């Protein structure tokens, strides 16, 4: 699995993103290229804009932490057409270039902050995560959707 904290791996993601265009067709799923970029940015909003995010209630957090987290933070790639959490659903069209620029900035920011900044960092849905769990979660999500668009 790629290392989101490594400059070469991060650049590889950026190169793949730069191969996308608004016309790039998906190989599965429902989102367009602009929507998938916005969708990917939602994950980073939980890192960099956590105070703006709605926190799950106690029952939801228990479910997320005990049943969803193990599947999200492991190294096993996501299968095609998995259900998406409502908070990640992008149903309107977005500005492709703005979302692309934001996503590239988010990838660069994670890489520059480095592994140390993520070791023991709390995730509002899953609790405290190791840097490796953060890496797996972000890398899996990026790979899943970039493969969805053939890049």
Descriptive keywords:
151 residues, globular, mainly alpha, Four Helix Bundle (Hemerythrin (Met), subunit A)
What can you see in these coordinates?
With 151 residues, the protein is mainly alpha-helical. It has one domain (7-148): Four Helix Bundle (Hemerythrin (Met), subunit A) (Up-down Bundle). It is 56% helix and 4% strand. It has five helices and two strands, in the order H-H-H-H-E-E-H. The chain has helices at residues 7-18, 33-48, 58-72, 96-118, 131-148; strands at 121-123, 127-129. Strands 1-2 form a two-stranded antiparallel sheet. A hairpin with a 3-residue loop joins strand 1 and strand 2 (127-129). Helix 1 (7-18) runs antiparallel to helix 4 (96-118), helix 2 (33-48) packs parallel to helix 4 (96-118) and helix 4 packs antiparallel against helix 5 (131-148). The protein starts with 6 loop residues before the first helix and ends with a helix.
CATH class: Mainly Alpha
What is the SS-derived class? mainly alpha
- Helical amount: 55-70%
**Mean pLDDT score, rounded?**
94
- The H-and-E topology, N to C, reads as HHHHEEH
Choose one word for the global shape: globular
Low-confidence stretches: none
Q: Tally of extended strands? A: 2
CATH architecture: Up-down Bundle
Number of domains: 1
Summed up, the helix count is 5
Overall radius of gyration: 15 Å
Distance between the termini: 16 Å
Spatial strand order of the main sheet: 1-2
Biggest sheet statistics? 2 strands, antiparallel
Q: In what range is the share of β-strand residues?
A: under 5%
Q: State the CATH topology.
A: Four Helix Bundle (Hemerythrin (Met), subunit A)
């Amino acid at each position: 699995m790629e290392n989101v904290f490594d400059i070469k791996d991060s650049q590889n993601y950026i190169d793949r993103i730069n191969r996308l265009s608004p016309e790039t067709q998906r190989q599965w799923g429902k989102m367009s290229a602009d929507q998938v970029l916005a969708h990917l940015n939602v994950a980073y909003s939980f890192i960099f804009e956590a105070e703006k995010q709605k926190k799950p209630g106690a029952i939801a957090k228990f479910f997320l932490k005990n049943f969803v987290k193990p599947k999200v933070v492991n190294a096993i790639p996501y299968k095609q057409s998995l259900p998406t959490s409502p908070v990640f659903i992008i149903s309107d069209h977005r500005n492709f270039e703005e979302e692309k620029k934001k996503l590239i900035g988010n990838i660069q920011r994670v890489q520059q902050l480095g592994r140390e900044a993520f070791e023991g960092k709390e995730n509002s849905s899953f609790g405290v995560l190791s840097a490796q769990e953060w890496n797996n979660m972000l890398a899996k999500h990026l790979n899943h959707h970039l493969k969805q668009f053939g890049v």
